Amino acid sequence: EGPGPPPQGLSLAIALSRHLMSAPTRTGGPIQSSLDDTYRRITQKGHGYCADFTRVFSGLAVAAGLPVRTWSISFESFGAGHSFNEVYDAALEKWVMVDPFHSIYFVDQDSGLPFSVLELHDRIVLSDSGGVSIRPIVAGAMPFASDALALDYYRRGFKQLALVWGNNVFDYD
Asked: How far apart are CA 80 and CA 63, in angstroms?
């Protein structure tokens, strides 16, 4: 027997996110270059910030046939925020949020099911945020000192949430 079917949905998103975190160290800062150069600098040198990661993640997802979209949150004004991805998981029949830069995704504590962006928004902004668990993608890569600080970060940003229209990640102007 062969190795089985290739990963899809959230499993593929986790594999892509782990691949992007393959550099031995991370140094941050915007790359603002072509997709292939950005990919190499992320995976080989640990360069890049959230928008670089979401752009490369989207390119890899599109190439793998995984439906993907990009979201952003803002803390004060445009450009002062964070971006992350959401993929469609056909087995779950829903969109699922994944943050390749922070190397995390979120699940419901009771069911273990991953949250979509809007489900997470509603849970942490419109309710008491109980029942949310953070799942690391790469151990030790999450930049927050605690789950509570991570949830507070997204809660503050989710007050200004935007779905990024367009996904032509294969061009650079």
From this structure: 29
59: number of Cβ within 10 Å: 20
Cα separation of the two ends of the chain:
47
In order of 45, 130, 140, the CA distances from 90 in angstroms are 33, 27, 29
Q: What gap in Å lies between CA 61 and CA 154, rounded to an integer? A: 23
Contacts 24+ apart (CB under 8 A), 115-118: 116/86, 117/71, 117/84, 117/86, 117/161, 117/163
The CA distance from 33 to 24, in Å, is 21
* pLDDT tens-digit readout, 125-164: 988 767 999 999 999 899 999 999 999 999 999 989 999 8
What's the pLDDT band for 28 if we cut at 50, 70, 90? confident
- Work out whether strand 81-89 and strand 94-98 pair parallel, antiparallel, or are unpaired: antiparallel
